[in-house]
TrEMBL record:
Region (Disordered): 1-39, 336-379
SUPFAM superfamilies recorded: 6-phosphogluconate dehydrogenase C-terminal domain-like, NAD(P)-binding Rossmann-fold domains
Top-rank taxon, per record: Bacteria
Compositional bias per record (Gly residues), positions renumbered to this chain: 23-39
UniProt name for this protein: DUF2520 domain-containing protein
Domain DUF2520, residue spans: 175-315
InterPro entries: 6-PGluconate_DH-like_C_sf (IPR008927), DUF2520 (IPR018931), NAD(P)-bd_dom_sf (IPR036291), OxRdtase/DH_put_Rossmann_dom (IPR019665), TM1727-like_C_sf (IPR037108)
Occurrences of domain Putative oxidoreductase/dehydrogenase Rossmann-like (ranges): 36-158
Organism of derivation: Cellulomonas fimi
Pfam family, one: Rossmann-like
Pro residues bias locations: 342-379
Length: 379
């Protein structure tokens, strides 16, 4: 398939012509050995030239897909286009979509749905156009307005972090990509991933939120743990916390990941088999001491999140070690007792003053005659 020459005004032919070209994506290309057929050359438009979009577009261009246009609002996005996509014009979003046979939507999750709907409202989507978003959270349901206009919807999420620089290009090799889409067009998404050097992993629409939560829990919260550990080491007087943590954390992570490699029926158990430290040993005294010093750290350094994180993860480690047969039940219970959330401090706020009692009415003046009908008036 021949896309518009990069940087030209190509792609301005009739929609029917573009649809005919894009509709053949994944057909007529050269098949890999046992893999999806290589798609024909597609004119790529990037909506949101952030860290992900600019890198993926660069990688697609490197394998022969011309990048015909990109959009970017921030100065950082414009700089990325200059660095990674030199010569590619920066245009308004509808103009990018109008030029492209393959539209990459690389925008934040919360912006995706209104963007797709807004482009549908102005008639931007074209029959046969391939529309790929890179959100981990969504499947192709969010692309329903584009699909209703005849576009081909695909969700292709790379399971890696991006710096937005050329350093990311080598890391695409062997990276897993979650691919979701209607069955007949899944080979297109798989073929694009293979061209990027990645490994396509097909996921059903309904499991995308769980998939994304798993990645965020593993990667994002790992960063939080490193930050907390580094802060505690610095408070202990270690001048280079990162240098001290690197070999320990690298070995722990590598060992856990190797233990989980190939695990399906028993996923999660392999990593726990390699758990070390006081929880794995049932060392209650050490755990109590850890909690005491981390509580002091919280008060002294303002690291109020650290003790709670330690408790939560140590409880999870205890429960998983018990389930895996690493701990006896009595040892696990002793750990869980030590890790219980502390009782809230007693409320020392003094009780409010009771409401003032109203002053009694003045006694009647005996020198005045009683009012007619009053209890004091004689019958």
């Amino acid at each position: 398939m021949t896309g518009a020459p990069e940087g030209s005004q190509g792609g301005q032919g009739s929609q029917g012509s573009r649809a005919g070209q894009s509709g053949r994506a994944g057909q007529g290309g050269q098949a890999g050995q046992g893999g999806p057929a290589r798609p024909g050359r597609l004119g790529v438009g990037v909506v949101g030239a952030g860290r992900v979009g600019a890198v993926l577009a660069n990688a697609l261009r490197a394998v022969g897909h011309p990048v015909v246009a990109a959009s970017g609002i921030s100065a950082a996005s414009r700089d990325r286009v200059d660095a990674l996509l030199p010569g590619v014009p920066l245009l308004e979003v509808p103009a990018v979509v109008e030029r492209a046979e393959l539209v990459l939507l690389t925008v934040p999750d919360d912006a995706l749905e209104p963007l797709v709907a807004g482009l549908a409202s102005v008639g931007a989507w074209q029959p046969g156009q391939i529309v790929v978003h890179t959100s981990g959270r969504y499947g192709t349901g969010v692309l329903a307005p584009a699909r209703a206009a005849g576009a081909i919807p695909l969700a292709v999420h790379p399971a890696m972090t991006f710096t937005g620089t050329s350093l990311d290009l080598a890391r695409l090799e062997g990276c897993c990509f979650a691919v979701t889409g209607p069955g007949p067009v899944l080979p297109i998404g798989q073929a694009l991933v293979v061209e990027l050097g990645g490994e396509p992993v097909v996921l059903a629409e309904e499991v995308r939120p769980l998939y994304h939560a798993a990645l965020a829990h593993g990667a994002n919260h790992l960063v939080v743990l490193v930050a907390q550990a580094a802060q505690a080491l610095a408070a202990a007087g270690v001048e280079q916390p990162g240098r001290m943590l690197t070999p320990l954390l690298t070995a722990a992570l590598d060992g856990a990941l190797r233990a989980e490699d190939g695990q399906v029926a028993h996923a999660g158990q392999g990593a726990i088999a390699g758990l070390t430290g006081p929880v794995a040993r049932g060392d209650v005294g050490t755990v109590r001491e850890h909690l005491a010093v981390l509580t002091e750290l919280a008060a002294r350094e303002g690291a109020f999140d650290v003790p709670g994180t330690y408790r939560a993860l140590a409880r999870a480690g205890t429960q998983r070690a018990l389930a895996a047969g690493r701990l006896r039940e009595d040892a696990a219970q002793a750990l869980l007792d030590a890790l219980a959330d502390p009782a809230p401090p007693p409320d020392r706020t003094p009780p409010p003053d009771p409401p003032a009692r109203p002053a009694p009415p003045d006694p009647p003046d005996p020198s005045e005659p009683p009012a007619p009908g009053s209890p004091e008036e004689p019958a």
